[in-house]
């Protein structure tokens, strides 16, 4: 299914907030349930070290990705982190996350001179791990009891993709 990708705007805050506060996103991220809309509005404020894209199916926002760059840190300016990838629950497994990740990877490789792209994923998120591996990410390590969950603590995996062209 083709999606239109574009930079996230302040006007996207209500639709993104619905995605970012949905139970499946809260479970798979460091987000808290019942966050006020202002947290999403603040997240969308301009920051030159952040690239945020949305995926659209027609006029509906179906996904979001956020890249955090280190351009203000001279010895780390070549690295960036995918901070969050989120889709509407009903749009999972339709290629939204893949389209967003591919766009970020292409931007890093082509325009941003990012050599090292990293992310953290929960150990039990096997679909995301499979996607990241298919996109060239490798496991670098595990973080035990990294996240507090509804039932205790969960482990996370650090993954990275190194672009060989830079």
From TrEMBL:
Residues 3-164 form the N-acetyltransferase domain. SUPFAM superfamilies: Acyl-CoA N-acyltransferases (Nat). The keyword Zinc does not apply. GO terms for molecular function: acyltransferase activity. Its EC number is 2.3.1.-. PROSITE patterns: GNAT. It is an enzyme of class 2 (transferase). Pfam families: Acetyltransf_1 (PF00583). Keywords: Acyltransferase, Transferase. PANTHER family: AMINOALKYLPHOSPHONATE N-ACETYLTRANSFERASE-RELATED-RELATED. This is GNAT family N-acetyltransferase. It comes from Ruegeria spongiae.
């Amino acid at each position: 299914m083709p999606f239109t990708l574009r930079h996230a705007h302040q006007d996207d805050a209500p639709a993104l907030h619905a995605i970012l506060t949905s139970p499946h996103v809260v479970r798979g991220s460091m987000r808290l349930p019942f966050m006020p809309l202002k947290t999403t509005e603040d997240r969308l404020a301009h920051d030159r070290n952040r690239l945020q894209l949305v995926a659209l199916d027609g006029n509906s926002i179906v996904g979001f990705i956020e890249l955090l760059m280190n351009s203000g840190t001279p010895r780390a300016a070549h690295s960036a982190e995918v901070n969050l990838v989120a889709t509407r629950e009903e749009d999972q497994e339709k290629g939204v996350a893949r389209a967003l990740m591919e766009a970020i990877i292409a931007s890093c490789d082509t325009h941003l001179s990012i050599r090292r792209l990293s992310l953290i994923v929960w150990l039990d998120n096997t679909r995301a791990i499979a996607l990241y591996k298919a996109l060239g990410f490798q496991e670098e390590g595990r973080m035990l009891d990294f996240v507090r969950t509804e039932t205790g603590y969960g482990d996370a995996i650090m993954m990275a993709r190194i672009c060989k062209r830079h």
